[in-house]
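[retry 2/3] Membrane insertase YidC/Oxa/ALB C-terminal domain-containing protein: previous attempt timed out, resubmitting with same input.
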Amino acid sequence: MLSNIVVLTQSSSFITGPIAKIFGAIMDAIYNLFSKIGINNLGISIILFTIIVRLLMLPLAFKQQKSMIGMQEIQPKLKKIQDKYKNKKDVESQNKMRMEMSQLYQEHNVSPFGGCLPLLIQFPIIMSLFAVLRKIPAYIMSIKGIYLSIIASIRNVADHATYLTSLNDASKMPIKNFDVTNNNQVIDLMSTFTSTKFNEFVDYFNSVSSTVGDQIAPLVRQLNDVNYFLGINLADNPNLMSIGLLIPVLNVVVQFLVSKTTMSMNNKNMDEKQATTNKAMMYTMPLITVFFVVSMPAGLGLYWLTSSAFQLVQQIILNKHLKKDIKK
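[retry 2/3] Membrane insertase YidC/Oxa/ALB C-terminal domain-containing protein: success.
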């Protein structure tokens, strides 16, 4: 099902494409800023980039959380209205029920859809974030420059086109209409390489031309240096038998705390059935998270971890602040 997917260097989607370009420019600026003081590390860039984007999204998060807390506060009154019309299914009674509920929303300045709208707005933003993080070389020009140097060297090998085409054909997600003369497509292909695949790549060119092998080996090491963060290669899926295990483990712990904090906020005034459902979600969400994190490059797992940690702190601070406001 994933075969023949068209992989573009930058997102060209009508909605997410322009947002991804803005995020890409931010990511590029962060990387270059640290590069000027001799730190060429993708992990630090991902962490700072995630914090900046989460700060930009803070007004939406504030609005969403305020709406959720407001809805929780009026739940007992809403239930009273629903119980009052429980056995009255005629049109007139149902209209009266809706009117009373609407008045209650207005009195407390809340909307049942107030929590959904910020979520809908955040969706294209999150998709744009993923577009940037999945295609780092397309947005960080200095990293793209390393890939271009590798391409310039391997083009001196006569059968490089045949080799690159065979790598694309063997890929889990081959690029449709792959053109070896298109640098962006070749970068797209190489950006999917794990460290093991890159070692095989260097060995191949070294075997056909030691000159080319000597040229690309330091460039690949440079890419590895960029990708390594605290001993974890962010281009690889987390290695569960190494320190890479920290990425999924920490994600599970933080996601559990996020779910628990959300549940403690939402369970107030909820009936037993809703509380049971929330409790099930508290244990299910971390398991879903670990499934995604171990199946994608550790760089995305690092983004997920940073984002969840930010969300946890944000929820605790906003809850405290908003509850004080409601009590006034």
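[retry 2/3] Membrane insertase YidC/Oxa/ALB C-terminal domain-containing protein: Strands lie at 228-229, 232-233.
[retry 2/3] clearing retry counter.
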